[in-house]
Design a protein that fits this description.
This protein is α+β, with helices and mostly antiparallel strands. It has helices at 7-21, 26-35, 40-48, 67-79, 89-100, 103-115, 235-271, 283-312, 317-342, 353-361, 370-380, and strands at residues 120-124, 140-143, 147-155, 165-171, 185-191, 200-204, 214-224, 228-229, 273-274, 277-278. It has three domains: 7-115, Acyl-CoA dehydrogenase/oxidase, N-terminal domain (Butyryl-Coa Dehydrogenase, subunit A, domain 1, Orthogonal Bundle); 120-233, Beta Barrel (Butyryl-CoA Dehydrogenase, subunit A, domain 2); 239-380, Butyryl-CoA Dehydrogenase, subunit A, domain 3, CATH 1.20.140.10. It contains eleven helices and ten strands. α7 runs antiparallel to α8 and α7 (235-271) runs parallel beside α9 (317-342).
Length: 390
């Protein structure tokens, strides 16, 4: 595999992902739902095939692919009815280490992440009192003779129980002592296996979908000096550079969800006969699906544009956020149309519609809410007064 976005390579990726996902049908995911279990076998299969190391350069044992190729990987996972949320963080959180980490950190962690011997799945940013107001976070990291000591709390830290490493954002300089409001936050890479039960407590949060999310408590957690990634105080800019990648990749997942819903609904509408003919011949069934299809096609183009700009190193903040919003809207609209097409059967677990319906609803609020995207676009795209973070 190479970093090329050549159409033939992308077709090969789609085929390879579909082959892997074929071993994990709806029954696999329904069983996990019932048990509230992590999809270990699915994650291991993707890891063994090298797909979770897709964005890691070849010199560190990865595939060296670009964001355009990564969108294809995640879209196909979702288009087959599987779910990448259990492992997608590994594809964008490692970027902070790659871009800002020391040579020693890159050599120590990236090859191990690429071959699956270490999982970097946990991203500790959000806190109960700050939400998406990242600059207001209260978790602190204070220097000591041996390194740093961390105190605080994170929430919605998904996969913390299943990750060997956590990328953590903490305040290293009090907010009232920084020259710029974006200064004073630093990024750390924590080795979780040594810290859980020794200052770190993980508490699972049960949600409407099987998402393995948690809240994490830090009580005088001691970490070495070399856990700091990049320069002290520059962490906010570091994580911002990865957030646009996250939004593009999750937008691709939403496109995959939309395609799954539309394929599922179309098949059902053709097969289900009432009043002497397939329900798909009725415009009341056709039109919601056709409209969702059109919106999915439009969102798909924006995802492709955002990914291309990202790979070219061009400005892409507006496109990344727009792609995430439009794709999330498209998947939700397709899910609604699919559920309505199935009628009562859409509520039956065996059809998988209700599971995917719950899963795709998440992306109206995560990793960034639609309202905050609209505020961002109003300011950055239209030049309207800033409405948040004053």
């Amino acid at each position: 595999m190479s970093a090329s976005s050549d159409p033939s390579l992308l077709d090969e990726i789609r085929s390879a992902i579909r082959k892997i996902c074929g071993d994990f049908p709806g029954q696999y995911w329904r069983q996990l739902d019932q048990e509230r279990a992590y999809p270990t076998a699915f994650v291991e299969a993707l890891t063994a095939s090298g797909w979770l190391g897709a964005l890691i350069p070849e010199e560190y044992g990865g595939a060296g692919l670009n964001i355009q190729a990564a969108t294809v990987i995640l879209e196909e996972i979702h288009a087959t009815g599987c779910n990448a949320a259990a492992c997608h963080a590994q594809m964008y959180t490692m970027g902070t280490v790659l871009r800002h980490g020391s040579d020693e950190q890159k050599q120590k962690y990236l090859p191990a992440i690429a071959d699956g011997s270490l999982r970097l799945q946990a991203f500790g940013v959000t806190e109960p009192t700050s939400g998406t107001d990242t600059l207001a976070l209260k978790t602190t990291a204070k220097p000591t003779d041996k390194g740093w000591v961390i105190n605080g709390q994170k929430i919605w830290t998904s996969r913390a129980e299943h990750s060997d490493l956590m990328l953590l954002l903490a305040r290293t300089t009090p907010r009232d002592q920084v020259a710029k409001r974006t200064d004073g936050l630093s990024v750390f890479l924590l080795e979780m296996k040594d810290l859980v039960g020794h200052g770190i407590t993980i508490r699972p949060i049960r949600t409407m979908l099987n998402h393995a999310t948690t809240e994490v408590f830090f009580d005088n957690v001691e970490i070495p000096a070399d856990a700091l990634v990049g320069e002290e105080g520059q962490g906010f800019s570091y994580i911002l550079s990865g957030m646009n990648a996250e939004r593009i990749l999750i937008a691709a997942e939403c496109i995959g969800d939309a395609k799954w819903f539309l394929d599922k609904a179309t098949q059902y509408a053709n097969d289900r006969s009432i009043f002497g003919g397939p329900i798909g011949q009725n415009q009341g069934v056709q039109f919601p699906l056709a409209k969702a299809y059109a919106h999915m096609l439009g969102a798909e183009l924006m995802v492709a544009k955002a990914a291309k700009l990202y790979d070219e190193g061009a400005a892409h903040g507006i496109e990344a956020n727009t792609a995430k919003m439009l794709a999330a809207d498209a998947s939700w609209e397709a899910g609604e149309a699919c559920l309505q097409t199935h009628g009562g059967f859409g509520f039956a677990e065996e059809y998988d519609v209700e599971r995917k319906f719950r899963e795709t609803r998440l992306y109206q609020v995560a990793p960034i809410s639609t309202n905050l995207i609209l505020s961002f676009l109003a300011e950055k795209g239209l030049g309207l007064p800033r409405s948040y973070g004053k």
